[in-house]
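## retry 2 of 3
previous attempt timed out at serialization; input unchanged, resubmitting
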Amino acid sequence: MRSKLRSRYGRTGLLVVPVLILAVAVPAVAQPVATTSASLSKTVKKALGLSQAASKRSAMAIQIARSTQKQAGPQGMPGERGQIGPKGDTGLQGLPGVSGLQIASNQTAEDSTDSKSLSVDCPAGKRVFGGGASIAGSQDPNVGANIAIGSSGPFVDDINQVLPSETSWRVEAHEHAATAEGWHLVVYAICGSTT
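## retry succeeded, writing output
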């Protein structure tokens, strides 16, 4: 029978067997590959699903964090007052101060005398700190334009300008342009006490 097959099919008969074997073998190999691909596809889909769910949870967490930002609570009750600290050292004695300031004044008679002088004393117990003077006339308010003040200060003597006991202010004035108008000299002394 083999010889008949050989003669009938010749070499073709030999080729039929391998082809059949291949046809049978291919499904056997292809089946595991198809199964592995389907399993891999399911795994990938599952991983994508988990990633998307995690992404959604992360977005929700961010929204919750933004909506619940820290807000200032109500102000608390004031705390108890602390204890008074120890008394500090006594400071150095300051410089003498001035108190009880007042202005003492006096004026000369009003006439046309060409030179006048006047001293003003401070009240008892007070010292002179400054002074000044003014020229006035009852008939001519501008009479002072013809009169100059020669000296003004705590002097006893106009010529020698001897300092007094620091309790009076003296002024001397004279006409630099002769005038028949009457005028008077007013002297002011600024007085006070020192401590």
